[in-house]
C-alpha cells in the first residue's frame, strides 16, 4: 500500500496539480453547501440599502428609530443623567440572576400594569428581564409552545409587525390573522375584529399591540378596547400584549398603558412584552421585559421556575447595563419626571412632523386625502402608498421605507419634511384617488 500512495503523490506532483488539490479539498469541506441565500429582513434590510446610498438627499424612513430635529440619534437627557450616576457608583460586572435584577423587574411591571395593579399587589405576576421586545416575544412564544395547555394558536392583527409571525414560524407555532385594519376607511375594523375573535377556538391566544400599532398607527379607542376585552373574556382567549411604544402614542406612558391595565382589571391573565428601545432610546442596550399574570401565587411560582429553565438554555441571563439605566430612571423621582418629559418631547415632535408632512403634500394641490397622516398615532404612518410608488420614492428620490408604504415619522425633521412631502406628491399625483 505505501508504494501505491507514493506513486500517486509523485504523479500529482509531476502534474503540478496543487491547485486542483486545493479546490477538491475545499469542495469536500464545504459543510454548508446546502444553505440557500435568505432574503434581507423587510425592515432592517431597508436600513442596509440606505447605508449604501451615496446621495446627499437620502432620507431613511424605514426602521422605527427616533431621530431629533437634526436627524441625529437621540440620547434622552434622563438617560445621560442616569449613566453619569451609574458611572460614579463604580459598580461591578457580575452576572445578573437568570430572570434579571429583581428591582428592575418590579419597576417595569409597575410601569406596565400600573400602581394599582391587583396582580402585583397579590404577587401573581411573573416578570423577567428580556432581551428587548423581540426577546420578550421569543421567550413568551416559546413558553407558550412548551407549557400552554390550551389551543396553541396565536392570532395576530392583519397587518402586524413582520417579526411576529417570523418568531412563531421559527418555533413551529400556528399563527393566524384577525381583521384589524380596514384599508378602505384607513381605520380600525372593530366589526371584523370582533367577528374574527368570535370564531377563534376557545383558549387560543390573541396578540394585541398595546398602543401605537405597528405598522398602521391605528389604535382602538378606549370604548373599543372595552368591547374587545369583553368578547375576549367571554371566548376564554388569552391576551398577549406587545407594548413596544409605551409613551409614543399620546406622549403619556399611563395613557398608552390603558388597554393593558383595563384587561388586567377585567381579570384577564394577560401576557405583556415590554421594550425600552423606543421610549428610553435604549435601542442597542436590548432591554425589555416579559410579564405573565397568573391566577394565583402557586401557579406564578411554577411559571417562574420553568421560565428560569427556558432562559438558562437560551442566553443564561440578561445583560446588566441597560437594566441599570432603566432602574435608575424609574426609581429616582427627579429622573423619572425628566424621562416623562423626554418621552412627551419625542411624541410631540412626531405629531408636529405629521402635521407638516400633511400640509406639505396638501399645499401642492395633491388630489388625494391625507388626513390619515395626522389621524394615525405613534412612530409610524401607514401612508397607503403602493409598492410601485414606494419603489419610485426609493429609486428616484432616495427616500427609504418599507414596501408596505409604512414610514417612520421619527425619521422626518424640519430640514427634510418639505422634500419628503414634495416627493410623495410627485409619486401620487397621477394615481387614481383611493376607492
Ligand atoms: C420597526 O418596526 O421598525 C422596529 O420595531 C425595529 C425593528 O426591529 O423592526
Q: Which molecules are bound besides the chains?
A: (2S)-2-hydroxybutanedioic acid
Radius of gyration based on Cα positions: 25 Å
Specify the CATH homologous superfamily of the largest domain.
Answer: Type I PLP-dependent aspartate aminotransferase-like (Major domain)
Please count the beta strands (DSSP E, at least 2 residues each). 13
Derived structural class: alpha/beta
Q: What is the CATH architecture descriptor of the largest domain?
A: 3-Layer(aba) Sandwich
Strand order of the largest sheet: 2-10-9-8-7-3-4
Q: Remind me, CATH topology of the largest domain?
A: Aspartate Aminotransferase, domain 2
Shape estimate: globular
What share of the residues does DSSP label as strand, in percent?
Answer: 5-15%
Q: Could you name the ranges where pLDDT drops below 50 across 5 or more consecutive residues?
A: none
Q: Which assembly state applies to the chains in this document?
A: single chain
Family: Belongs to the class-I pyridoxal-phosphate-dependent aminotransferase family.
GO molecular function, one term: L-aspartate:2-oxoglutarate aminotransferase activity
Protein name: Aspartate aminotransferase
EC number: 2.6.1.1
Descriptive tags:
Aspartate Aminotransferase, domain 2, 435 residues, seven-stranded mixed β-sheet, Aspartate Aminotransferase, domain 1, 18 helices, alpha/beta, binds (2S)-2-hydroxybutanedioic acid, 2 domains, two-stranded parallel sheet, 13 strands
Amino acid at each position: 500500500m505505501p508504494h501505491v500512495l507514493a506513486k500517486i503523490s509523485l504523479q500529482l506532483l509531476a502534474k503540478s496539480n496543487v491547485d486542483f488539490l486545493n479546490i477538491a479539498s475545499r469542495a469536500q469541506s464545504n459543510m454548508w453547501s446546502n444553505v440557500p441565500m435568505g432574503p434581507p429582513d423587510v425592515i432592517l434590510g431597508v436600513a442596509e440599502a440606505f447605508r449604501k446610498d451615496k446621495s446627499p438627499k437620502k432620507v431613511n424612513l424605514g426602521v422605527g428609530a427616533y431621530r431629533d430635529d437634526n436627524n441625529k440619534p437621540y440620547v434622552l437627557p434622563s438617560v445621560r443623567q442616569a449613566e453619569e450616576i451609574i458611572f460614579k457608583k463604580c459598580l461591578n460586572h457580575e452576572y445578573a440572576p437568570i430572570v434579571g435584577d429583581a428591582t428592575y423587574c418590579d419597576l417595569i411591571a409597575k410601569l406596565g400594569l400600573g400602581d394599582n395593579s391587583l396582580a402585583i399587589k397579590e404577587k401573581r405576576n411573573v416578570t423577567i428581564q428580556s432581551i428587548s421586545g423581540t426577546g420578550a416575544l421569543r421567550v413568551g412564544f416559546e413558553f407558550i409552545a412548551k407549557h400552554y395547555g390550551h389551543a396553541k394558536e396565536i392570532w395576530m392583527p392583519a397587518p402586524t409587525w413582520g417579526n411576529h409571525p417570523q418568531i412563531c414560524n421559527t418555533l413551529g407555532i400556528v399563527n393566524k390573522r384577525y381583521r384589524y385594519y380596514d384599508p378602505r376607511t384607513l381605520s380600525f375594523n372593530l366589526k371584523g375584529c370582533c367577528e374574527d375573535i368570535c370564531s377563534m377556538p376557545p383558549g387560543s391566544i390573541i396578540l394585541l399591540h398595546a398602543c401605537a400599532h405597528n405598522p398602521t398607527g391605528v389604535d382602538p379607542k378606549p370604548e373599543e378596547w372595552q368591547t374587545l376585552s369583553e368578547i375576549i373574556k367571554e371566548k376564554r382567549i388569552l391576551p398577549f400584549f406587545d407594548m413596544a411604544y409605551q409613551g409614543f402614542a399620546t406622549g403619556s406612558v399611563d395613557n398608552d398603558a390603558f388597554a393593558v391595565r383595563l384587561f388586567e382589571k377585567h381579570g384577564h391573565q394577560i401576557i405583556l412584552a415590554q421594550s425600552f428601545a423606543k421610549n428610553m432610546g435604549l435601542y442597542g442596550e436590548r432591554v425589555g421585559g416579559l410579564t405573565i399574570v397568573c391566577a394565583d401565587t402557586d401557579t406564578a411560582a411554577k411559571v417562574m421556575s420553568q421560565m428560569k429553565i427556558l432562559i438558562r438554555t437560551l442566553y443564561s441571563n440578561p445583560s446588566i447595563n441597560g437594566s441599570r439605566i432603566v432602574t435608575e430612571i424609574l426609581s429616582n423621582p427627579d429622573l423619572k419626571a425628566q424621562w416623562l418629559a423626554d418621552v412627551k418631547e419625542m411624541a410631540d415632535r412626531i405629531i408636529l412632523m405629521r402635521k407638516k408632512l400633511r400640509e406639505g403634500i396638501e399645499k401642492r394641490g395633491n388630489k388625494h386625502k391625507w388626513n390619515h397622516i395626522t389621524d394615525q398615532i405613534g412612530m409610524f404612518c401607514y401612508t397607503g402608498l403602493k409598492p410601485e410608488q414606494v419603489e419610485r420614492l426609493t429609486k428616484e428620490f432616495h427616500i427609504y421605507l418599507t414596501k408596505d408604504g409604512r414610514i417612520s415619522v421619527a425619521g422626518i425633521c424640519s430640514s427634510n419634511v418639505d422634500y419628503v412631502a414634495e416627493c410623495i406628491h410627485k409619486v401620487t399625483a397621477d394615481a387614481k384617488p383611493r376607492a
